[in-house]
């Protein structure tokens, strides 16, 4: 038994690893298999972990690499699912909280994996653009453009596109706008 | 006006993102992972004894 074995920390990161895997794959059993593979890889390659660096970032990196190499192998295409989802989302924009979350999940599922990943790392897991770039093995600018595009696409899918300014405007603002219009005439 | 709308939109998106992530977090972790870690640890200890 060695002192301060970094492997003892693995258990602390399990919930976050699983949350990232589930959010990335949108599939509980695929996510759990990924987490399991990642744990074994992390355990056996712990000598590659640099003490003092961010272990969660290291684990997320293994996790995402596991996902992308599995995706390459199976050559699964997500695109056929997309069409069905697009129709459903276009059907009716809902405004109450619960429906909004359901729509959000559907919209999130439609993003390209790389865009969803960037958004999850930066927007939900609290990594910096720099950390996310390092984890994904791309330039910082790539992560920024991926998150920007992901946000724009989500907004579009959620129906906050062109009519956004009207939908976002509350009654008070509306009355000010109409008042100022009236006074200008 | 437009930038205000954009910021609002972004914060709504980020809130939803965090909620998706937090819901997955709150699901808890199946025992199989802790069992796996215990198993890996045992394997290593046995190897250490042999070597």
Our estimate of the beta-strand percent of chain B is: under 5%
Alpha plus pi helix count of chain B: 2
**What overall geometry of chain B do the principal axes of the alpha carbons give?**
rod-shaped
Helix content of chain B: over 70%
Uncertain parts of chain A: 79-94, 162-169
The CATH class label of the largest domain in chain A is Mainly Alpha
How many DSSP helices of chain A?
Answer: 10
Q: Biggest sheet of chain A: strands, sense, closure?
A: none
What is the number of beta strands of chain B?
Answer: 0
Number of domains of chain B: 1
The run of helices and strands of chain A is: HHHHHHHHHH
Q: Which class do the helix and strand fractions of chain A yield? A: mainly alpha
The SSE string of chain B, one letter per element, is HH
Overall geometry of chain A comes to globular
Please identify which CATH superfamily of the largest domain in chain A we are dealing with: Winged helix-like DNA-binding domain superfamily/Winged helix DNA-binding domain
Looking at the overall shape, the CATH architecture of the largest domain in chain A is: Orthogonal Bundle
Overall radius of gyration of chain B: 22 Å
Q: What share of the residues of chain A lie within helices?
A: over 70%
Number of strands of chain A: 0
Q: Biggest interface between protein chains, with counts per chain?
A: A-B, 35 and 29 residues
GO molecular function, one term (chain A): sigma factor activity
Domain RNA polymerase sigma-70 region (chain A): 12-76
Family (chain A): Belongs to the sigma-70 factor family. ECF subfamily.
Protein name (chain A): RNA polymerase sigma factor
């Amino acid at each position: 038994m060695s002192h301060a074995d970094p492997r003892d920390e693995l258990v602390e990161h399990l919930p976050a690893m699983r949350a990232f895997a589930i959010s990335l794959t949108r599939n509980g059993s695929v996510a759990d298999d990924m987490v399991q593979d990642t744990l074994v890889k992390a355990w056996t390659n712990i000598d590659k972990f640099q003490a003092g660096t961010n272990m969660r970032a290291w684990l997320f990196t293994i996790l995402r690499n596991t996902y992308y190499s599995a995706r390459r192998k199976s050559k699964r295409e997500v695109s056929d699912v997309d069409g069905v989802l697009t129709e459903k989302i276009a059907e009716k924009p809902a405004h109450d909280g619960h429906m909004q979350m359901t729509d959000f999940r559907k919209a999130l599922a439609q993003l390209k994996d790389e865009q969803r990943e960037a958004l999850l790392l930066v927007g939900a897991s609290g990594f910096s653009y720099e950390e996310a770039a390092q984890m994904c093995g791309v330039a910082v600018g790539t992560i920024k453009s991926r998150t920007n595009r992901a946000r724009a696409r989500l907004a579009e899918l959620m129906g906050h596109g062109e009519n956004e300014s009207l939908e976002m405007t509350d009654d008070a603002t509306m009355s000010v706008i109409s008042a100022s219009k009236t006074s200008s005439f | 006006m437009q930038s205000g709308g954009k910021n609002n939109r972004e914060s709504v998106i980020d809130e939803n993102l965090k909620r998706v992530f937090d819901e997955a977090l709150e699901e808890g972790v199946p025992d199989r992972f802790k069992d796996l870690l215990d198993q890996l640890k045992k394997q290593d200890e046995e190897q250490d004894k042999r070597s």
